[in-house]
């Protein structure tokens, strides 16, 4: 058997962390001294990768049901790509009379207070320093094209203001190779990548770089925090999964949706079973019986 090294002193170690079963220590003292650092990383799963699933989580020990396995805040949050004008501090829907322009950048807001919020800082900063002119939004209550780039803009802002977040964003799945063949990719190139570079004078980001970010924010919705709790017991080595589609869709619809948006052909127990676990969910009912 391979001898593990202590996470603190790198000496041979045989005491495994009972939380994650991933990290080893030579002694109780070294485990104790490392806990402050390790605590944030001590999770019951590890990230694995294969051709079918791409990156996914695999349990590193048995997990009981009802356990919180993951709790995370979003790296970046913003309005959806297709949206009527909303306040960029609190995301309330705006109309002409209920909104005011941000004094610094011109984006409409519900109040001056929202103009000073942390959430609004990225586009406020980029608009005033790079574009050099205010944004003007005059139509409300219908999807507004300028908002298409907002979440992407908030991601790009991280490169200079928060390199740690930028690095983490870059590590997320963008599906760029698969997306390259889709009409959506070309739409994003024109409506987001080319638009951002021209409108906000951000030529120091390449079209490709911006399109990568487009892919990343489409793969992951970013509303509020994320808490994942186990719905049933999971055995060590099993992969942790969540439902990307709707449990009340038939197999054909679920598989189609997953292959269009997540670029994989689902082979889970239900998808692989023509009877859908004996429910005959997608079956046609014969009228004469
Ligand atoms: Zn040690
Ligand atoms: Zn641990
Ligand atoms: Zn607001
Ligand atoms: Zn502003
Ligand atoms: Zn499935």
Automatic annotation (TrEMBL):
Cross-referenced Gene3D superfamilies: 1.10.220.160, 6.10.140.2220, SET domain
Domain MYND-type span(s) in chain numbering: 6-42
Protein keywords: Metal-binding, Zinc, Zinc-finger
InterPro entries for this protein: SET_dom_sf, SET_SmydA-8, Znf_MYND
Molecular function terms from GO: zinc ion binding
Stored PANTHER family: GH11294P (PTHR46455:SF4), SET AND MYND DOMAIN CONTAINING, ARTHROPOD-SPECIFIC, MEMBER 4, ISOFORM A (PTHR46455)
Name of the molecule in the record: MYND-type domain-containing protein
Lineage: Eukaryota, Metazoa, Ecdysozoa, Arthropoda, Hexapoda
């Amino acid at each position: 058997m391979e001898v593990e090294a202590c996470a603190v002193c790198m000496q041979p170690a045989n005491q495994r962390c009972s939380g994650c079963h991933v990290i080893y220590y030579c002694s109780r003292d070294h485990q104790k001294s490392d806990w402050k650092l390790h605590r944030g990383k001590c999770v019951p799963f590890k990230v694995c990768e294969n051709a079918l699933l791409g990156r996914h989580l695999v349990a590193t020990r048995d997990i009981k049901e009802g356990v919180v396995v993951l709790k995370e805040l979003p790296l970046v949050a913003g309005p959806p790509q297709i949206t009527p004008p909303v306040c960029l501090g609190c995301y309330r829907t705006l109309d002409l009379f209920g909104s005011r322009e941000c004094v610094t950048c011109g984006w409409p807001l519900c109040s001056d207070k929202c103009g000073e919020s942390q959430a609004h800082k990225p586009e406020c900063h980029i608009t005033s320093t790079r574009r050099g002119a205010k944004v003007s939004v005059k139509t409300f209550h219908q999807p507004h094209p300028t908002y298409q780039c907002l979440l992407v803009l908030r991601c790009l802002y991280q490169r200079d203001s928060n390199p740690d977040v930028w690095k983490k964003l870059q590590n997320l799945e963008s599906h760029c190779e698969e997306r390259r063949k889709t009409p959506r990719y070309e739409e994003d190139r024109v409506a987001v990548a080319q638009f951002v570079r021209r409108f906000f004078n951000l030529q120091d980001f390449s079209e490709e770089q911006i399109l990568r970010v487009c892919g990343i924010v489409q793969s992951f919705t970013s509303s509020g925090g994320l808490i994942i709790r186990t719905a049933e017991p999971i055995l060590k080595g099993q992969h942790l999964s969540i439902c990307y589609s709707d449990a009340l869709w038939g197999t054909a619809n679920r598989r189609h949706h997953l292959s269009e948006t997540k670029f994989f052909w689902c082979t889970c127990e239900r998808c692989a079973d023509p009877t859908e676990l004996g429910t005959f969910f997608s079956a046609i009912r014969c009228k004469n019986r």
